[in-house]
Amino acid sequence: MVSISSDVIRGYNDTMILYLLLERASYGYEISRQIKKLSEEKYVIKETTLYSAFTRMEKNGYIESFYDEDASNGKRRTYYRITDAGRQYYKEKCAEWKLTKEVVEKFIEEEQENGDN
Amino acid sequence: MVSISSDVIRGYNDTMILYLLLERASYGYEISRQIKKLSEEKYVIKETTLYSAFTRMEKNGYIESFYDEDASNGKRRTYYRITDAGRQYYKEKCAEWKLTKEVVEKFIEEEQENGDN
DNA sequence: CTATCGTGCTACGTCTATCGTAGTACTTCT
DNA sequence: AGAAGTACTACGATAGACGTAGCACGATAG
Known about the structure:
three-stranded antiparallel beta sheet, homodimer, mainly alpha, 3 strands, DNA-binding, 5 helices
């Protein structure tokens, strides 16, 4: 069964997260479920990958963290919102994706869905 | 200017090399030039990346190395040919690529080529 | 004759995104 | 009370990519 290896999705985890943050600010667990859902269960991001992406992107200024002040109690969530730099970065990654796709596809053979020919 | 980062092509260097070896056995320098040419100069594989891919793939049994017996003298080239396992692996990577593309594209916004609207 | 350029590698160390494992903490369901 | 779900953090390992450097040989130019 074909599944997505970390090496091929690498470099697009950030893009996926930013895409979801374009809609609205969110937090780890929610982002994780949204990725799973939007990818139709084809891809599930690992927790450690997700949180380290948050840390990295905040350090790079692509996202900002904040706490929901209304949260009465319970384990406090860390929310993230996208910054202008993040929006810019997202756009660049989209452009890069198109280029990458173009290049990779020159090396991919269309598999004629074979009837055992 | 948009260029392809190593993190996004990671995991497809092997695929590109194998694709070229499907055609015929080849060696480092030639593969390198073919990748550059076929990608229309959009991607140039680094020497170290290429040779470490050869080593890795030979260890994994996807390719086999041999020397050109006819080569009279000069620096001897190491040729590589693809194995059956390599052909199988290539096919899997092609299938994986399609899946990856499907997933990633759900997170990519089509950039309406803007006339500064 | 020497220098440079192109070809064809190898060695070695660094970087970094991802991931495995584990642990903490709080809530809700049973 | 215990388990399952939510919401993280810490720490170390892995592996592909890459920077730098060097070696070896042939051909071409000065």
